[in-house]
Amino acid sequence: MLDHIRIGVTDHERSRAFYERALKPLGIGIIVEVTPETGGETATGFGKHGKPFFWIDAVDDPPTRVHVAFGSEDRLTVDAFYEAAMAAGARDNGKPGLRPKYHPNYYGAFVLDPDGHNIEAVCHAPA
């Protein structure tokens, strides 16, 4: 089981603002901020219930693109994630909908963040 993931971003403030808006419908928010003044590199940890599990780190070089999927309890929240992410400046990479090639109840939405990372919200529950 994964405990957390970190991805590199080229413009930390832009990405911080993007993820703050895009992840809000999923109940995910900023838990911790790390800065050079606090003894680390610039990073933001997003999560729930006081536990950061999704981190963004400022990097100088373009990052290797990754795919991160956030679980959702219901399909309406997947839709809300997609709308929030698009409003925050994402590029569409797959509108909300069923993806039966994965399994009959796979309902997901995909967006590209400011660095081109493929970010998804997915619900596995039946409608």
Structural notes for this entry:
With 127 residues, this protein is of the alpha+beta class. The protein has a single domain, classed as 2,3-Dihydroxybiphenyl 1,2-Dioxygenase, domain 1 (Roll), CATH 3.10.180.10. Helix content is 19%, strand content 36%. It is built from 2 helices and 9 strands. It has helices at residues 12-22, 75-87; strands at 5-9, 29-34, 43-48, 51-58, 67-71, 91-92, 97-98, 107-112, 118-123. Strands 5, 6, 7, 8 and 9 form a 5-stranded mixed sheet that branches. A hairpin with an 8-residue loop joins β7 and β8. It is globular and about 50 Å long. 29% of the residues are buried. The mean pLDDT is 95.
Task: Describe the secondary-structure layout.
Layout: E1 5-9, H1 12-22, E2 29-34, E3 43-48, E4 51-58, E5 67-71, H2 75-87, E6 91-92, E7 97-98, E8 107-112, E9 118-123
Helix pairs in contact: 1-2
Report the portion of residues in β strands: 35-45%
Number of helices: 2
Instruction: Find the count of extended strands (DSSP E, 2+ residues).
Output: 9
**CATH topology group:** 2,3-Dihydroxybiphenyl 1,2-Dioxygenase, domain 1
- Strand and helix order: EHEEEEHEEEE
Gyration radius (Cα, Å) is: 15 Å
CATH architecture: Roll
Shape estimate: globular
Q: State the name of the first-level CATH class.
A: Alpha Beta
Mean pLDDT metric: 95
| Structural class by secondary-structure content | alpha+beta
Low-confidence parts = none
Approximately how much helix is present in the residues? 10-25%
Which homologous superfamily in CATH is the superfamily? Answer: 2,3-Dihydroxybiphenyl 1,2-Dioxygenase, domain 1
| Distance between the ends | 27 Å
Number of domains: 1
